[in-house]
Amino acid sequence: MKNILIILFSIIVNTLFSQKNQGIVYYKINEIGLTEPEKTSNTSGLDLFRKIKQNLASQEFILEFNNEKSHFFLDPKQKITDTQSQEYRIQNIALIYTLTGEIFFNKTENELIIKKNDGTLVKKNSSISEWQITKESKMIDGILCYMATQKINYIARDGKDKTKTITAWFAPSLPYNFGPKEFNNLPGLILEIKDGYTTLTAYKINLNFKKNIEIEIPKGKFVKQEEYEKKLKAQMGM
Q1: pLDDT tens-digit profile of 29-58?
Q2: Rounded to an integer, what distance in angstroms lies between the CA atom of residue 76 and that of residue 109?
Q3: Do 168 and 147 meet the contact criterion of CB atoms below 8 Å apart?
Q4: Contact call for residues 151 and 132 (beta carbons, < 8 A)
Q5: Taxonomically, which superkingdom (predicted)?
Q6: Share of the chain above pLDDT 70, in %
Q7: How far apart are CA 44 and CA 183, in angstroms?
Q8: In this structure, what DSSP letter does residue 131 have?
Q9: From the CB of residue 72, how many other CB atoms can be counted at a distance below 10 Å?
């Protein structure tokens, strides 16, 4: 019953404020689940591990959205452009744990477009009914949020098919059905997401814009998620 009331409240507020349905949210990583090896004689490998974890801790991301679309990406100020540098290599490895491209969501079509770092455009449907909304709540930056979870299948780094649980905290008082990474379709803006080894938390929300936020979804040849996963498995020798 409580879950139904949360959804109804979101629909009512969303109708009242539909003309202001745009904004920018800034996220940073506040939790990293990678643990340092207890015993190792490989000092260079340990040093690389620590640099990767340090890069993860410094990563910040941006979610911009309007009435129909959203765009999630690494803050351009953090992007390393020198492809020959060690910092570029470290950042690319670190981004495997968080974001390997840019993510666009079309709410009207319920489609996700993922622009991978290699330029590949992957198209997939966004999950709607898979979220399980719970009664658990907490405050994030003074905003009441409720917890929702869903299980998703993915290809691990060893090439095997695995399942993981995604935990999201959304705010019904912010009636926007968007969120970071590939996660949307909750009755409120997602302010925190735990996905695998990392947890992203919003630290700044800007909803006051005089000009419309325009989001252009990439055009070109799209690959379905299933085809892209087959390609990954082939590259991993599976």
Answers
A1: 998 988 877 666 677 888 888 999 999 999
A2: 28
A3: yes
A4: no
A5: Bacteria
A6: 84
A7: 36
A8: -
A9: 26
